[in-house]
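Putative tRNA (cytidine(34)-2'-O)-methyltransferase: structure tokens wanted.
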Amino acid sequence: MFNLVLVEPEIPANTGNIGRTCVVSGTHLHLVGPLGFSLDDKSLKRAGMAYWKSLNVSVYDNWNQFIEKNGLADTSTTPEGVFAHDVGIDAVDKPHLHFLTKKAKKTYTQATYRDGDYLIFGKESLGLSEELLAKHADECERIPMLQDSVSLVNREDWSQKHDALDGGGQYSHPVLLQQDICGNFIDPNEFSVSALNVSNAAAIVLYEALRQIGFPGMDV
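Answer:
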């Protein structure tokens, strides 16, 4: 069984749709707070429909609680603090973490998925935090997408929105202003507006992971 993790999700309908996908694929959904909505939200239940009652879901106050409760604190190191890949140890056979972000060089199809792995997605407005991505540089993956110049007919309008400052002197939309500290990230000048809805992205990556482990009805 795979684990799909939503870190600080903001839009209830997205979480409802993802919950529905988790039910039909036998996936455990993890919701890491703070959440941008109540789990009693009508739009959440409407998107998940009757599936929500059958969903295997866990909720956490924050990232540290999620890590602690799932025993994932040392997934990238041996107990002695030596990086597992340096000594030929497969991270002590613990599940792998896959951080999905537009800022990774490696694509999700280049990853190897094992039963029990965690597929991790950030909140709709900002994605996963820079700090978290930098800490897990080798575990970052992205879904290839067309550049804005190809996919957006109104790309100039989008560009103006991203360049505009609000009354407080802040960018009205998230923009990468400098190179991330993680060497795996793309040049921030290549940042694009084009993006998938998180529920679409989650389904794409989850079903590639399921394909790799021989999910019923799929050709391996």
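The longest helix spans residues 198-212. Confidence is low (pLDDT under 50) at residues 76-89, 162-166, 169-188.

Cheers.
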